[in-house]
Amino acid sequence: MAKQYKLGKSGLLISLSAKPFAGGGEGNLYKITTPKKLRKYVAKLYHAHKLSPTREEKINYLAAYPPMELDENTGAHSSVVWVKEALYDRGKFVGFIMPYTDGEKLEILCTPKIPKKLRRDWARFDFKKSPQALDMRLKLSFNICAAIHQVHSMERYVLVDMKPDNIVIQTNGLVSIVDTDSVEVVEAGKSLFDAPVATPEYTPPEHYRTLDYDPTEREAWDRFGLGVILYKLLFGIHPFAASSGAPYEQLTTLHDKIKHGLFVHHPAKKSSFSIIPPPHKAFYKLDESLQDLFFRCFIDGGEDPDLRPSAEEWCATILLTLDDERAYKRYGHILGGGLHSTKPRFALPSSRIDLPSYSVAATRLVELNNNNDLPKQKTILPSKQELKDFQVKRLKWGKMLALCIFVGLVSFIGTILAGIGLVGFLVYRAHKTFKKDQTYRNAQRVRKSLAVTQKKYYTKLYKIGQSRKSFKRRVRRIVPKIARLTKEVKGKVEGLKKYLKEQDHRVKELETKALEQYESLNQKYVKKAIGHRVIARVEDGNYSNLAKIRIAIHTAHKKAVDELVKERPVKENHPFMKEGKIAINSLMQNKQTKISDLIGVKVMALNNEKEAKIKLLYQGVREDTFIENHLDRLWKGKRTISDAAKEELKEAFEELKFTSILKIYNVNTRTGEVTLKDGRKFNTKQFRDSKLILTNLKYWHDETKHQLNALDKKRALLKKTYRQKISVLENEKRMELKSLDRFKREELAKVKIETQKIVLGAPFTNLQAQYETMTDYVTELETAYEKEEELVLNDYRSMYESIVKDCEERANRVANEVEEIEEALQQYNKKINHPKVQKSYRELEEDLAEMKQLLPELNAKAFEARRYKEITFSNYLRKLTQD
C-alpha cells in the first residue's frame, strides 16, 4: 500500500508517486495519485536538513494568505503557483502541495538564440523567423508583469529571488511564477519570514550599500529584478553586460557592474564601455515610453529605489505600446485616464443566456424501441495477393505425354471401359492426395470454425429478436409518450436557440453602429487635443486616443528635462529634497501606524468576540462532563441508590483522578474495562451495580462525544465567519496602505519637481508650467469625453439591454415550459424503473453487447474463409495439369 500523507488544513489523506519527477536543493516534487480531485496539484517534500519550525510556520502563513485574485477553479491556469496546504507525515511537517504547471523556463528566451530543439515550437518568438517576435515578447512581458503585480498587490510579499528560472512559460503566452515558497513575508514594513536566497545578477545596487533598513523588505527590490528580466526577454542580453573601460576595467562580473550602476545605455557613462555587444542596439528601436521605464529602473532607481517603475506601470505602458483593443478591454482598468472608456462591445445574448436543460435518462430506451435494425455482418473481400493457393509441383510435359499414351494404349489393347477405369483410379488417387494437402486441411479447419461462429451468430440473432419483442411489449405504453414529450422539449429548446441566433445578428449590427459613433467621438477629442497650441509642438504621431497623447506629452517633457539635467545635475542629497523626503516619510509612518493601529484594534476586538462566543458555546456541555456534579447519572434507571455505593464510587474515581467524562478513551462493554486517555485502566466490575454503571458510563461518554462533535462543527463555522470578517479588514488595510503608497509617490514627485525648480531655475519652471498646462487640458478633455460618450452611447446600451431582456424573458418562459414537461416525464420515468421493464431492457442490452463482441470474430473468420475459396479439388487438378 502506498504511503499516505495528511493535509494540514483540510485533513485529507493523499498518496504520492513512488519516484519524484523533479527536484532541487530544497526538496523533490511528486505527483499526487489519490484522491483524483487533487491530481492537478503536486507535492513538494523538503529534504530533512531543510525542515524547521520556522519553515512550517511560513508555509502555513502562505497558505492562509494567497494572492487576492488567485483562481484555482478546474481548468484554470495558475499565473502564480502558490502554496495550497501544508503536508504532514504522522504529525511531522514534511512539505506542501501546490498547483501543477507545465512549460519551459523563461531563460530559453533570455539568450540571443533560442535552443535548437525548441526553435520549432517557439518560432513565433524568434526574431529571425517571425516579424511579430517583438510583439509576442511584449505580450509575454505583460503577462509576467500582471502575475507579479498580483503578488505585490497583497502588500505583504517580496519575491526577492527574481530570475527567469523562476518563471515558467508556455507557447500560448501563459506564464506561471514558481518557487513562491521562498518569498519574503513583510507586515507593517518588518520581515516576518526571510527569503533564503537571491541571485547576484538580479540583485539591486542597494544590496551593496550600508542602509538603515533591509532592502529585501521593500517592493523596490523586486522592481529591479523585473527590469532585468524584461530587458533580457526583449533583447536576449543582460542590461549590464558589456566590457568596461577606464576607470571600471577591473569590473568583470555582472553584480560588480550593477553595484557601480554601469547600465549599458546610461547617458553619463557611455564612455566607460570599451565594447558594447550588438544585441543592445535593438534597445533604441523600442517604443520611447518603454525606454523611459528602463532608464527609471536602472538609472533613477539606482539613486532612489522608489523611483523604479512598478509591475503595474510596466503593464500600463506595454499595453499602450501594443495598442491592442482586446487587451484594452480586458486590462484597461490598470491604466490612467483615457482608457477607462474602451470600444463599445456587446456580449451576444447566446453567450449570456443559458439554455434550459432537460432529462435524457430514457433516450436509450426510446432508441431501442424505435430502432429495429440488427447488427449485420460486414463483407470484406480479400485481394488477389491475399488468396490462398496450393503449393504442389506441376506435372512436366514428358510425364503428361507418357500418361496420355499409357491411358490410350490401355484403352486400345483392352477396352474403353478399362481406360475409363484407369482414369477413375488416377482421379481417386489424386483426390486422396488432395485431402492430405496442408492447405486443404487449413481450409477445412477455417470453414468448420466459421460454421460454429455462424451458428452462434444466428442463435444470438434469434435471441435478440425474442428480447426485443419482450422489451417492446413492456414499454409499448410508456416509450411513445416519453418520445413525444422529449421531442416537444427539444423543439422548444431548438426554437430558443434559433431565436437567440437572430438576436445575436441584431446585436452585431447594433455594435457596428455604436463603434462608428465611438470612433467619431474619439477622433473629435483627439483632434481637439492636437489642436492645442502647446500640444501641437509635441512630436507628431498617429494617436488613436487621448492616453497615447498623454504618454507622448510625458515623453517629450522627460526628454527636455533630461537635457537640462545634463547641464546642471540635480543631486539626491539636495537639502530641500532631503527635508521633503524626511517630512514625507515621517507623515507616511504616522499614517501607516494609525491605519495599522485602527485595523489592529478592530481585529483584536473580533478575536476577543470570537473567543467569548466559543467559550460560551462549550460552557454548558463542559459543565455537564464533571462526574462529581452528576454522579447520579451512573445509576440512571434505578430508583434507590445507597450512600455507601456513592461514596465507594466517588473515592475510587478520586483516587484515579477521574474527574471528567472527557478523560475516557474507550469503554469495553464486554469486559467492563474503561481506558483513560493517559493510558490508565479500571474495571467497573469492582463496583456495586457494575453492569448499570458501565451502561450509563458508556451512554454518557457517547452522548458527550456527539454533543462535542456538533459543537466543533459550530466552532469551525464560527471561526470561518470571523476569518472572513478579519480578511475584509485586512483587505481594507491593504487598500488604504496602497492608496497611501500612491500618495507618497505623488508627494515625492512634487518634492522632486520643486527641487528641480530651485536647481534648474526658470527654464525648468517654464517647462513644468507647459507640461502641467498640457496635462490639465488633456484631463479636461478626458472628463468631457467620458460625459459625452455616456450620452452618445447610452441609447445603444439601452437598446442592447432591451434585446437581452427580451431574450431572458423568452428563455425563462421556455424554461418554465420545459420544467412542466419534465414533471410529466418524471411520472413515466418511475414506470421505466419498474423491475420488469428494467429486466427486459438489461436483457436486450446484454444481447446486443454480446452480438457486438461476436461480430468482429465472425467477420474475421468469414474473411479468412474467403481467402480459401480457391481451395477446391477441381482447382487442385487444374494446378497439377496447367502449364
Automatic annotation (TrEMBL):
Name of this protein: Serine/threonine protein kinase
Residues of the Protein kinase domain: 15-320
Gene3D superfamilies in alphabetical order: Transferase(Phosphotransferase) domain 1
Stretches of the chain forming a coiled coil according to its record: 804-861
PANTHER family named among the record's database cross-references: OVARIAN-SPECIFIC SERINE/THREONINE-PROTEIN KINASE LOK-RELATED, SERINE_THREONINE-PROTEIN KINASE CHK2
Positions of transmembrane segments: 400-428
Organismal lineage: Bacteria, Pseudomonadati, Bacteroidota, Saprospiria, Saprospirales
GO terms for MF: ATP binding; protein serine/threonine kinase activity
Protein's UniProt keywords contain Secreted: no
SUPFAM superfamilies: Protein kinase-like (PK-like)
InterPro entries: Kinase-like_dom_sf (IPR011009), Prot_kinase_dom (IPR000719)
Keywords associated with the record: Coiled coil, Kinase, Membrane, Serine/threonine-protein kinase, Transferase, Transmembrane, Transmembrane helix
